[in-house]
Amino acid sequence: MGSNNPSDAVNLWRFAYFLPYRSDRALLPHMLRDGDAALFVISALLPRGGRYAGIIFNYPSDWSALERSGSEETPPLGRDDMLILCTRPPLDDREEADKARVHGSCSALEAKVFACIRRHLPRCARSRIQVCDEHALAYPEVARRQYILLQQRHGAPIYRFRARGDTRWLQPPPGDRSSVAFLIYEDQLWPGGPALLAAWGMCGVDSLIWTSLLATRFRRLLGTVPFVMAELTPPPKSASRPATLADATKWQVRLLTHKSPSL
Hints:
The protein is an alpha/beta fold. The chain contains six helices and eleven strands.
C-alpha cells in the first residue's frame, strides 16, 4: 500500500457531499451528509497513525455560479494524504434522474475520485449498480448479482438482480429487505497523489450501519483490500427512532467478496 498505509502518519481528509438544499437559501458549510458515517471510519484509522486533517467541501455544480467562486480550491494533496468518502458517489445520478439524488460537483478532484470508483463499479446510482467484470469473475457471489436494481423508498432493498452472462432479471424472495454496501481502497488516486478510502451503503441508514460495523467487526478490512461488496439485511424488527446504534449488531452482513462471510 506504499506510504499511504493507514498505519503510517497520514492526513485524513473527509471528502464531503452536501444535503439536499433549496436554490433560494444559502448553502452553508455545516449542511453535510453522512458525518457520523465518516466519523466511524476516521475513528478506526486514528489509532493506526492517521491524523484528522479536516473537510474538503464538494460543493454541488448546480449551485449558483456566483456563490461557487473559489469553492474548488483544495489543499495540495500528496502521498501523505487520504480522502475518506462515506456518501454514495453519484457517478450516474444525472443520467438516471433518480429521486434520491446526490448532487455532484463536477470538480477536477471529484472526477479523479469517480474514475477510481468506476474501475470497480462501471455504473453507480441510487437506483442501480453494476460491478466490473474483474470482480464478477473473481467472486461467484458477486457474479450472481453483477447487475442490481434497488428501491428508492423505505430504504434501499434490492428488487431485481441479474447474473453475469444472463439476460433474466431475478427477484429476491418475498419479504427480503437486503441491500448492498461497498468498501473501496486505492493507494493513489493519481501518481504521487492521495489514497482514497470510500465506504457506503445505498441509503443513509445503510451507510451508517455499514461504517459502524467496519469500525468494529470488520476493522481489519479498512485500508487493506481494494474492494469489498457486502449484503446487508436489517433485523425483522428495529426501532424507528433508536436511542443508540445498538441495533447495528443485529443486522446480518454477508461479505460477497470473501470466502469467510463473517471474516
